[in-house]
Amino acid sequence: MFEMPEKRANSLNKIPLLGLGTYQGDGTDYAIGTARNATLVALKKGYRHIDTAYAYGNGIIEREIGEAIADSHIARSEIFVVTNLHNTFHDPQDVKTGLDMSLRNLNLDYAQGIQAIAHCPLGGSLAPAVARRRGGGPLADETIKAIAEVHNKTPAQIILAWLTRQGIAVVPKSSQPSRIESNYDINFSLTAEEQWKMATLVGLHGENGVRNLSNEDHIGFDVFDEEIDQPA
Ligand SMILES: NC(=O)c1ccc[n+]([C@@H]2O[C@H](COP(=O)([O-])OP(=O)(O)OC[C@H]3O[C@@H](n4cnc5c(N)ncnc54)[C@H](OP(=O)(O)O)[C@@H]3O)[C@@H](O)[C@H]2O)c1
């Protein structure tokens, strides 16, 4: 079986570079059991890194992940579990309470610490209230689609292979078993030219970059507008 490359996350742990993301959109149409099934499919496929947060469904997703880990009968020590301390627990005296709550949900006695992880590697699950994206996002990008065709892969596989080859840990989310599986099948190489094309998709200076979060719609002004951001 293909072994997902890892990198050292801290003195104790190595993080598998590809993990499963488990954010389920704004949760209004969440079908109970989806994250549990997704995690089971992922663990069976070989994923050993799961990313979650208390904020996803007020702990529902953490609980489903805990159930899936227990049902998988895979040793806890083999799985890298990341959860996120919710905003309301950032005061130092509240950190333990927040973490204990997540661990209870997960039915685990530890999670794996502070990580830099590339969230939303496939362009993100857009929450309609805050997001607005011009164009179809990375999965619909013509350059990525052309590279995918050459390799007989999906655009998602091209993106994930490119990111992980640079040592970047990524956590694509899917609830669809076939996508969960294919997102893990990234054991192929891109040519130097293809890698250059991927690296320069947004322009050499990021001039064609895409922002998913629509600040103007959400909070009434663009926090990235440098003219607004001047001292009065
Ligand atoms: N800590 C934080 O602040 C934070 C913030 C954002 C994200 N995250 C983490 O990062 C994870 C990933 O971000 P995300 O969920 O926003 O976005 P994402 O993983 O970039 O994209 C998920 C979207 O892509 C679709 N998708 C997945 N695989 C696909 C494929 N092979 N082909 C086509 N579409 C595919 C999914 O739909 P289906 O499910 O229908 O396949 C879903 O709509 C989150 O789940 C979460 O764990 C953390």
Describe the structure.
Residues 18-112 form the NADP-dependent oxidoreductase domain. The active site is at residue 56. This is Aldo/keto reductase. The chain is mainly alpha-helical and 232 residues long. The protein has a domain at 6-118: NADP-dependent oxidoreductase domain (TIM Barrel). 34% of the residues lie in helices and 6% in strands. The strands form two sheets. The protein has a three-stranded parallel β-sheet, with helices on one face. A two-stranded antiparallel ribbon has the order 1-2.
Helix share, percent: 25-40%
Assign the CATH superfamily of the domain at 6-118.
Answer: NADP-dependent oxidoreductase domain
Main sheet record: 3 strands, parallel
What is the tally of helical segments? 8
Quickly give the CATH architecture of the domain at 6-118: Alpha-Beta Barrel
- Distance separating the two termini: 60 Å
Lateral arrangement of strands in the main beta sheet: 3-4-5
User: What would CATH call the class of the domain at 6-118?
Assistant: Alpha Beta
Q: What is the 3D form?
A: globular
- Mean pLDDT level: 88
Topology order in helix (H) and strand (E) letters:
EEEHEHEHHHHHH
Strand proportion: 5-15%
Per CATH, what is the topology of the domain at 6-118? TIM Barrel
Bound molecules: NADP nicotinamide-adenine-dinucleotide phosphate
